[in-house]
Structure formats: structure tokens, C-alpha cells
Amino acid sequence: METKEKNVEEYTHPQGVEVKVSAARVNLTMLGFIVVFVAAGVILFNYVWGEASSYSAGYELGSIVRLRALSIKGTIIMFLCCLVYTLIQYGLLYWFSGKDRQALRWNTDWKSWGFLLKKPLLLKYYRVALLSPFILLGVFPMIHGFSTGNSAVYFTGIFCVVASAADCYYFWKLRSFDSDDKIVDGDESLSATIIKGTY
Length: 199
Description:
The structure is a single chain. The protein has 7 helices and 6 strands. Helix 4 (about 70-95) packs across helix 6 (about 150-165). The protein is about 60% helix and about 15% strand. The chain is elongated, with a radius of gyration of 19 Å.
């Protein structure tokens, strides 16, 4: 019990700038991502690789959602994407925090779920952990699927891009801080304390 309390005290850093992202804004951003990426993605993919005209993109979108996303296979793929997404972020945060398991904690709330930092970490490493799943699971599969005409890989990439909208928005929110500043996550997701490098 004493060791646990000591670890908590070690990672307590009250000084710094508090950053908090509005959950309503994140939800609106994700809704915008869904509309833009999914609708535009279906129209573009259908225009290049489909046999039907681009006017039937709404029908194609409905059959993709019905036959792929809502099927057992689609549900398993989405679950695996979320699992790999979380593991990538955990692995990077674990590595960058000096392989200290005590520096991370699991958090689940109505905004999101994932691992949060209790130990200060340089913001440049935190940014890498935020964007790596977006690039590896979202952008790369989307480009590969579109280039090869593989609709399953393409729409898996689109799903991962949409799922990472909150992290991308959080990355954008942190853009004004220097990469040598340190960050400690708050009690809930999408909130943190930035410890300036001059402190």
C-alpha cells in the first residue's frame, strides 16, 4: 500500500497549463469525419473501381454498411481494429515512458477509453502515440485498398480514420505547445496538464 502511495506522489505535478477538450466538439468532429470520409470515400471508390455510376453511391453505401459493417465478420474486424489501435498506443506510451507500467492507467468514460499517462512525458513522444494508429491503421490501409481496388481494406482504413478522429482533434488542440514540454493526462480522457520546459 505504501509503495502505491509513493508512486502516486512521484507522478503528481500540479504546476502547468490545463488542457481540456470539449466532448461535444469531439462528437461533432467525429460526425463530420463520418459524413465526409465515408460518403466521399464510397463515391470516390465507386467512381474509380465500381461498375455502377457515381449516382448510385448511396445504394453502395447502404449495402456496404448492411453487408460488411453490420455482419459478424465486419463486427469482428471493427473489434480487432479497436484492439490493435489500443495496443499500438499502449506499446508506444509504455516504451516512451521508460517501460514503466506504473506510468499508465486504464480509463473508461463516456468520452472514450484507453490508457492515460500518470508520469510526465515529452509532448513530441505523446504526439507520436496519438497519431501512429491513425496513420498505420487508417491512412495506409485506405491508400492501399484504394490503389489495389480492395474494398474491404479500403473501408477498414476509413473506419480507423473515423475512429481516430478524437485523437486527431486532440493532437490539433496540443499544436500550440512546444515539443519539449511535458504532458500528464488528467483524471478523464481528453484532458491533460502541460508542464512547460522552462519550469
